[in-house]
Amino acid sequence: MKELIFIPLAGLGHIVSAIEFAKQILNRDENFSISFLIMELPLDYGVHNFIQSLTSQPRLKFIDISLDEKTSSGFLNNHETFLYNFIDGHKSLVREYVHNICKTSSCYGFILDMFCTSMIDIANEFNVPSYIYFASNASFLGLCLHFETLRNEQHSDTSRYMNSNEALSIPSFKNLCPTKVLPKHLLDSRLASTLFFDGICRFKETKGIIVNTFFELESFSLQALSDSKMVPKIYPVGPVVSFEKSSHFRNNSLEIESIIKWLDDQQDSSVVFLCFGSMGSFEAEQIKEIATALEHCGHRFLWSLRKSPPKGKVDIPTSYNNYEEVLPKGFLERTKERGKIIGWAPQVTILSHPSIGGFVSHCGWNSILESVHFGVPIATWPLYAEQQMNAFLLVKELGLGEEIKLDYVVDFEGKNNQVDIVSTQEIGSGLLKLMVKS
One Pfam annotation, family name (predicted)? Predict the structure, then answer.
């Protein structure tokens, strides 16, 4: 039996599609077995519960190699280097696991998350190939590789773009790309940014980069990557998402039945679905603007609404005990005939329902692929990471989305006293254009 070692980043946006890709490998070749080495982060991002919710599958194992809580939390002392020190801290445990499996089977190779490139060292020790599993899109991959060249080879100071209004020519984009939609960690000069690009540089040491996209969606970007002489072989394997309409691990069966029953009672393509990912939430002032826009637009809506963590604390949003504490007075009563508010959303189940006519999304790549698969148009409202760039890709490059905002950024650290508020008018305009498409 040939063993593949997957080392993912323990965040849902990374690990969910990596597991689906692993299942595809197992379905194609019965001679493989796969071990996922799980490094649980100090903060609970729901990964443990997600893995526990999965149906057990032969030849697919999840191995907890987490450090003890004290050691793991100790890396938090240095915010900038935390992630890289945390991953490096697991090297000896990875080495030990691979050494043990080599006693009984053959280690065939490593498939690594984009942040786990230091594990290339362990693959080299065992003289096996390593590949990157890139959970985002080809356009973002091209952007990362382009900026790595600017910084590390051309010694360009990319921090000059931080607050500029320039538009840049980037090989993986057809259009000039405004700097305001680029991820900030690509532009700043902090140590975390340097470490990020050191990791991107190591992509070139691997045998190939597996990208969760497909040629019909990103033909321009994939061609640009293929034309580059500095990039390993690109393998577009998407769309890699779970399209099973099974119960979401955060929803109980009664909640899902209630959502489906409500959707069943609506006309085809009549409902706008609002959902902002596992980390998506807003403060009370912004929630009122959304509610007012939904009330005025007249469309039926299904809104996944969750409570933000305390200011300055990075954590997963929680459920409200009482929605009335943040909604405009009387909103629930006035909209009860055409709207439903929920906490966690079984997103695939909802997007696949014929009553859904539009999706207001944070533009996480997994959500975009799900929406594209089910033919649901998107209105863009990015929050963090590369989502602003994804929004630009959808609206300007691919023509598959309508803009609510392209450059909205959530302040997780609570450093800004003044938080941008997207107005009722902006939201309403985006909803109108979105639902015209349905």
Answer: UDPGT
